[in-house]
Design brief:
Alpha-D-Glucose-1,6-Bisphosphate, Chain A, domain 3; about 525 residues; globular; binds 2-acetamido-2-deoxy-1-O-phosphono-alpha-D-galactopyranose; 18 helices; binds zinc ion
């Protein structure tokens, strides 16, 4: 059972700094790395408790700050099938992190044990990984101390992408069941994706080379590893921004977030007209594509575009397979470009739902469809196949060679897509597979719809917690009266849309605006920001 004296002694080695209030946001805990030691130690304890509660199922812990600065870091828990930590535990995670003394910490642990009726004698198993940040190794040591304090079995998965950790966690917990997700190793991950890719593009000619900006992060090494499993005749990837050694380079003027926010090429990548490239983020769970148009302009193909491309491809395959009974839906957040929503609903006739920001909301909503496609505009997303759809696709036999071919492509896509979480490497293969199947250039894909000009601005406020939203974050309920003022501004602009919400990962309020022209959209964004400030 739990040794509370040991916890008190161990915890004293990882004291909580005074005067800091930790918040558990959409991505777990995230802040400057030098403030995270006590938090990560305690997350180790939390992971052990969570595993005990779930009868010894394996819990994942990822140490990363994704697209944020190199000096930041973060920690998040992964539930047994790759989902984010269950919501009912988030409040306790924050309480654990904020317990000031060792005695208070033990009190919170006892509350958690009682609240969730945890069997203290149950074994607990935890697997963890980290990205390439220099602060990673020290934080892993703090995590291991926490895991030892609670007596968990530990499994160091090393330097990995976030989605690789989600994959392996899910594999470990589904081994030998009907939901078995794959071989629980890094090599198993590459083999699964590579085989699926080969099947998905069978008989199709290879797309032109893809340049990849890997943000000088973990994605660089893992993408190179993945391409070693794939024949050069079917995929040619040129990995750039792969310097994970030089300090200060991670996400600096490059990576998916930089490209999406600034709508320009990253440093270190000079593509020419007609060429296409993609950028990963610091833990390789986001990807955005782009190309240079014939007139030399930069064209972004972001998460909305990828989601729409994937959604329409899957719908066509389902039809071609004669499996119309399978319903396909798309899930977006308020940040989805208005044109993408219009295209999906009005042109593709697909049901589209809008949910609050955060993977857990998107994921849960996508589970309501037989095939649920979800992508955030920033490039984080995946596609979920329900158990019913999976079984149907696996067992169906086409009546014609065309039907059989479509069914086989769907089977390959089910394997290709990392269904545990958005995965830049898996999504990269998905986009490449669609390009090969359609025999389209990215420019051709981009013609499906034209993005409305948009602007996202950060506003630093004294207290972002006073901003409360409803209607999937599109409407402010507090501070009272503010929404009315925003509405009045929006009304002045053709195709105008704007909303304000507090960030779940940074100490800022975000303002988003869209309008018919970039000038009007910027004007709208900055006047709404003026109201918030
Ligand atoms: P916040 O900081 O809550 O806006 C950001 C992203 C989310 C998601 C999370 C988790 C935007 C506008 N927001 O959330 O989409 O990716 O980080 O990393 O991009
Ligand atoms: Zn990320």
């Amino acid at each position: 059972s739990i040794n509370y004296d040991k916890i008190k002694t161990d915890a004293a080695q990882h004291p909580k700094p005074q005067d800091i209030k930790y918040t558990h946001g959409t991505a777990g805990f995230r802040m400057k790395a030098d403030l995270l030691d006590s938090v990560v130690y305690r997350v180790g304890i939390l992971a052990g408790l969570r595993s005990k509660k779930l009868d010894g199922k394996v819990i994942g812990v990822m140490i990363t700050a994704s697209h944020n600065r190199e000096i930041d870091n973060g920690v998040k828990l992964v539930d047994p099938y790759g989902e984010m930590l269950h919501q009912s535990w988030e409040g306790y995670a924050a309480q654990l992190a904020n317990a000031q003394t060792e005695d208070e910490l033990v009190e919170v642990i006892k509350i958690i044990v009682k609240e969730f009726d945890i069997d203290e004698t149950m074994t607990s198993k935890v697997i963890y990984a980290r990205d390439t940040r220099p602060s990673g190794p020290a934080l892993v040591m703090a995590l291991e101390d926490g895991l030892r304090s609670i007596g968990a079995e530990i499994n160091d998965f090393g330097i990995k992408t976030t989605p690789q950790l989600h994959y392996v966690t899910c594999c470990l917990n589904t081994q030998g069941t009907e939901k078995s997700y794959g071989e629980p190793t890094e090599a198993g991950y590459y083999k699964k994706l590579a085989n699926a890719y080969r099947r998905a593009v069978e008989g199709k000619s290879r797309p032109s080379p893809l340049y990849v900006d890997s943000a000088n992060g973990v994605g660089a090494i893992k993408l190179k590893e993945l391409t070693n499993y794939i024949d050069k005749d079917i995929l040619e990837v040129i990995v750039l921004n792969d310097d994970i050694k030089t300090q200060g380079k991670l996400n600096h003027l490059c990576g998916a977030d930089y490209v999406k926010t600034n709508q320009r090429l990253p440093l270190g990548l000079n593509i020419k007209a007609g060429e296409r490239a993609a950028s990963l983020d610091g833990d390789a769970d986001r990807i955005v594509y782009y190309f240079i148009d014939d007139d030399g302009t930069f064209k972004l193909f972001d998460g909305d575009k990828i989601g729409s491309l994937a959604g329409s491809f899957i719908i066509d395959l389902v039809k071609a397979a004669g499996l119309e009974g399978i319903n396909v839906g798309v899930v977006q957040t308020a940040y989805a470009n208005g044109s993408s929503t219009h295209y999906l609903e009005k042109v593709m006739k697909v049901p589209v739902s809008c949910v609050p920001t955060g993977v857990k909301y998107l994921h849960h909503e996508a589970e309501k469809f037989d095939i649920g496609v979800y992508f955030e505009a920033n490039g984080h997303g995946t596609i979920l196949f329900s158990l019913t759809a999976t079984k149907l696709i696996r067992s169906s036999k086409g009546e014609t060679p065309e039907q059989e071919d479509a069914i086989e492509r769907l089977r390959a896509l089910m394997e290709l897509i990392n269904q545990t979480v958005g995965d830049a490497l898996s999504d990269l293969l998905l986009v490449e597979a669609i390009l090969a199947n359609r025999q389209w250039t990215l420019k051709r894909c981009n013609e499906a719809y034209k993005d409305l000009p948009n602007r996202l601005v950060k506003v630093i406020v004294t207290d972002r917690h006073i901003f409360k939203t409803t209607n999937a974050e599109r409407t402010l309920v507090e501070p009272a009266g503010l929404q009315g003022k925003i509405d009045a501004l929006v009304k002045k602009y053709k195709d105008g849309r704007s909303f304000v919400r507090p960030s779940g990962t940074e100490d800022v309020v975000r303002v988003y605006a869209e309008a018919a022209t970039q000038k009007e959209c910027d004007e709208l964004a900055y006047s709404v920001a003026g109201l918030v400030y």
